[in-house]
Design goal:
358 residues, alpha/beta, Rossmann fold, 2 domains, 6-stranded antiparallel sheet, 10 helices
């Protein structure tokens, strides 16, 4: 099977058979949402006596742990084979299965970067009142090897988190209407449909435009939806016609969205324009007031191109570090200047200088 023949398509039939047909080292990112083996052989009732619909599908049933372990091992082994040397993989699970998957992935010599907690504010309550409410799932983010030079779009994720370093706990609601796909009888198409916000974080954090993203457990196409919207290529494996039908209808309504996040414009290093050049060319002026992002005034630019905060006179690098309690800091990401009744970043002045002085 040639990779060019299956990009941006659904490959039908069994996951493991189709994985084995793909060539070595052909994908950049994998998101795997395997069956959780939840062992749901009983009826769970809400407090009002009505039945709670959780995972009762045949694809989640296994004879015992050894069968489930072999199922996961074979698929993860093939996933590792088709990953490029610098690719990464995300695998999601809950308490029923994630520790078994962790063990299997370590035995396959994946290199684990993070375990990410998906915190679900609207998780279903514990109807029996016999345990804690199960309100999170775990994602394992791994590379093919310890030496993989994997993609991590740090600046973009920081931007999406309000310019604070992204953490390994993601507070995201579970799927609800209208995102939740339902059939003509108003029944959920898939019992464990993942929210688009979760897959947006995964794909945005660890892929680039035009990368090939593979999902070996396609289900209702959430990974495909986000990959298409963010301008990534995709390959999906699925055997159930009802899921394929629902996903194709869903995907027909999605168009590529080009913006600074999807196109990773924030990851491009800004041009080097020193502060003295900005002053000499009147993009900055002596005695301009410098602020931080919260409009708090830090100090003024003096005639020696230093910053005076009425306590110290320091270089702009050291002044930003001082106010952030750091040893060093990139001043261009910190300082803003008040011009024309707006707070403008020093970075934007550098881009303006480059654009107007080509």
């Amino acid at each position: 099977m040639e990779i060019k023949d299956v990009i941006n398509t659904i490959i039908k039939w069994d996951c493991i058979e189709n994985l084995r047909k793909l060539p070595d080292e052909c994908v950049d990112l994998i998101f795997a949402d395997p069956p959780y083996f939840m062992q749901t052989d009983w009826v769970l009732l809400r407090t009002d006596g009505s039945k709670f619909n959780w995972v009762e599908d045949e694809w989640d049933k296994f004879s015992w742990y050894n069968e489930y372990d072999n199922f996961c091992y074979q698929r993860l082994k093939e996933c590792k084979r088709i990953m490029k040397k610098d690719a990464s993989i995300w695998v999601i699970g809950s308490f029923q299965n994630i520790y078994r998957i962790w063990f299997i992935m370590q035995n396959l010599w994946f290199w684990i970067l993070n375990d990410v907690i998906w915190d679900k504010p609207n998780a279903a309550p514990n109807f029996s009142w016999t345990r804690l409410q199960n309100s999170h799932e775990t994602l394992l983010w791994c590379t093919k090897s310890e030496k993989s030079k994997y993609t991590f779009n740090y600046k973009t994720m920081k931007h999406l988190n309000g310019w604070r370093q992204e953490k390994s706990v993601w507070n995201i609601w579970i799927c609800i209407w209208p995102e939740r796909l339902k059939d003509e009888n108003w029944v959920k198409v898939h019992s464990t449909q993942k929210p688009e916000a979760l897959l947006f974080n995964v794909i945005t954090a660890s892929s680039k435009p035009w990368d090939i993203v593979l999902d070996p457990f396609f289900w209702t196409g959430t990974t495909w939806a986000i990959a298409k919207r963010t301008g990534r290529n995709y390959i999906w494996l699925e055997r159930e016609d009802k899921y394929i039908k629902a996903a194709e209808e869903r995907l027909s309504k999605i168009e590529v969205e080009h913006n600074e996040v999807n196109d990773l414009e924030l990851e491009v290093k800004p041009p080097k324009v020193p502060m003295d050049l900005l002053i000499k060319t009147w993009y900055l002026s002596i005695w301009d007031k410098l602020c931080d992002r919260s409009w708090t005034e830090i100090g003024t630019v003096n005639e020696k191109w230093y910053v005076d905060d009425w306590e110290d006179t320091l270089s702009i690098h050291k002044m930003s570090a001082k106010h952030l309690w750091l040893t060093n800091n990139n001043w261009r990401d910190y300082f803003r200047v008040f011009k024309n009744w707006n707070l403008i970043s020093i970075d934007s002045l550098r881009y303006k200088y480059i654009e107007e002085n080509k």
